[in-house]
Amino acid sequence: MIKTDVDGARQFIDDEEYTKTYEMAENAFRQVEQASGPGNNWLGWRRILKEPNDAELERIERHAAEIRKNADIFIICGIGGSYTGAKAIIESLTSGFEGSGLEILYAGHHMGGRYLHDLMEYLKSPREDGEPKRVYLNVISKSGSTLETALAFRTIRAWMHEEYGDEAKNRIVATTGESGGVLNNIIEEEGYAKYVIPGDIGGRFSVLTPVGLLPVAVAGIDIQTLYYGAVAEYELTESDPGKILEYATIRYILHKNGYALDVIGSFEPEMMGFAAWTQQLLGESEGKEGKGLFPATASYSTDLHSIGQMIQQGQRNMLETLFVIEKPISDLKITSMSDNTDELGYLEGKTFHEINHSAQEGTVQAHLEGGVPVIRVILEKLNAQQIGRFIYFYELMTAVYVYMLDVNPFNQPGVENYKQAMYRLLGKKD
Ligand SMILES: O=P(O)(O)OC[C@H]1O[C@H](O)[C@H](O)[C@@H](O)[C@@H]1O
Questions:
Q1: Global ipTM
Q2: Ligand 1 center–CA 135 separation, angstroms
Q3: Per the record, what is one GO cellular component (predicted)?
Q4: Which amino acids are annotated catalytic?
Q5: pTM of the predicted model as reported, rounded to 2 decimal places
């Protein structure tokens, strides 16, 4: 179960307003449950947990094991919902310092030429033993036409075909919509392996489809445990959505009362990928029709030394969401020393977890005193099961809360505007 601690936000909310608004949250949940709200053909993220596709999970596991055996580098080529979730899971559950074994790299998430140039140089450079690097590529795009992803894919696959010849087609895997889109034409022509993103699941809700599951399995994470964690949270919240409704109610009231920003962060750097994932999930879902809380992110305690000042004493229009991990991720202790020149002797014997926890508690106290409502979303442990639960928890909370705003959570019409202007400048026909 994902737990929440909303005491730090409730003190900013009137009881009567809370009770009245909670009924709205119940109605919004019913809209999700009965598929009766706007965008009701985009609820596949619930369907896949109600009826898990074990055959697909097994296919992904088999394929990932083969890639892990043969690859030096696995490139995740996608943007937005087509990479944020996989990146968040991988960063939360694997160490960044493995140093050997399979390396996971990212492409197609921006159009910086230097990054892609340097990535290509790195791919082309030999391994330490002088052998060429064995590169695998997973291009992920629901529409199959997103420019950032398509350009990086063109660059990398052209090189892979040159480098590996016919073998390239066994090293390139495509994850896209069932049909249509340029990517499907390429897959057909080249014979790449394909995974389908179901038509009723939008990008930012797609992490528990092959979009996220294949890269995560390639990273060595147990996707069965992850997936069934989400299933367990789905089942729990179907019969008891109380925590979700409480959270959505509070967010709705704060929004209505003029709050403009939700600063989403964690004292665990491992959770910052999820701050980015949540940022897209909430931002593209609620930021329409002049509504929505801007989802900002803050990484603690790092950012206490920069925007912490603003959170404490800037304009009073922000709430804060903290992702908390209850059980220590590490038991690393403060180093004992014979002298106390650095004056840190008073911390000897304590773990970093204890100190980080005190920093968190102190920050929450200070922010509450400074007038910032704080919501804590709590995972018991940092493991695949809890991460699966966390993903569904946020997907459902987002849908419920955005229905309360009387907004369709599942489209993103505003994203098209920059694309049209950009394509005009680039001289794209039609
Ligand atoms: O998977 P794709 O079709 O390439 O889309 C990738 C991303 O870009 C779009 O512009 C949307 O704003 C996002 O919601 C989406 O996740």
A1: 0.98
A2: 25
A3: cytosol
A4: 284, 419
A5: 0.98
